[in-house]
Design goal:
With about 170 residues, this protein is mainly α. Helix content is about 85%, strand content about 0%.
Length: about 170
């Protein structure tokens, strides 16, 4: 019985290694598109001028400016580290898995922060949901890691959302 469990764990570890390498290759390609896109969105939000009397819209755009620039920087760093790791070592192991989790975590944190900003001007939490689906589609990781990552992200999102000045109707819909 113990030998069977050890064999299953070895197979599981081998599959995770292949999945991590595949995900890192996806990240490396995605970064080429995502980093300039987020920088361009940061520039675009930075040039937004809200109508007079709409200070909340200007505050939203200003916050999104820095959020987009920050994600562009984080994505670029993850992309460079991914590229280096894949060039140095074909079997990336735990450093590759941690890089994969960091990349997905950066996007999930971005999605949560953007959704909280969107809620402040009357929009819903669609941004968070779309980013969660995108990260889940991109990343191939063990269910345990995935569940922990998404649970931690949602926990932080929920805690911040509850403390913000949000319409209670929205909270009851979650």
């Amino acid at each position: 019985m113990l030998a069977g469990a050890q064999r299953l764990k070895q197979e599981y570890d081998q599959v995770q290694g292949i999945a991590t390498v595949d995900t890192l290759k996806r990240i490396r390609v995605l970064v080429i598109l995502a980093a300039p896109l987020h920088a361009a969105l940061g520039w675009w939000f930075g040039h937004y001028h809200a109508p007079k009397g709409e200070a909340n819209l200007q505050a939203w755009a200003d916050a999104l400016t820095w959020l987009q620039y920050g994600l562009s920087a984080a994505v670029t760093v993850c992309g460079l580290l991914t590229h280096l790791l894949l060039r140095i070592n074909r079997a990336v192991g735990y450093p590759g898995l941690m890089l994969q989790i960091a990349f997905c975590g950066a996007y999930l944190a971005f999605g949560a922060a953007a959704a909280i900003l969107d809620v402040s001007i009357g929009n819903g939490i669609g941004t968070f949901l779309v980013v969660c689906m995108g990260a889940a589609t991109l990343s191939l990781m063990r269910p345990v890691f995935s569940a922990l990552l998404y649970a931690a992200t949602f926990g932080m999102f929920w805690a911040i959302l509850r403390k913000s000045a949000v319409d209670p109707t929205l909270l009851s819909a979650l």
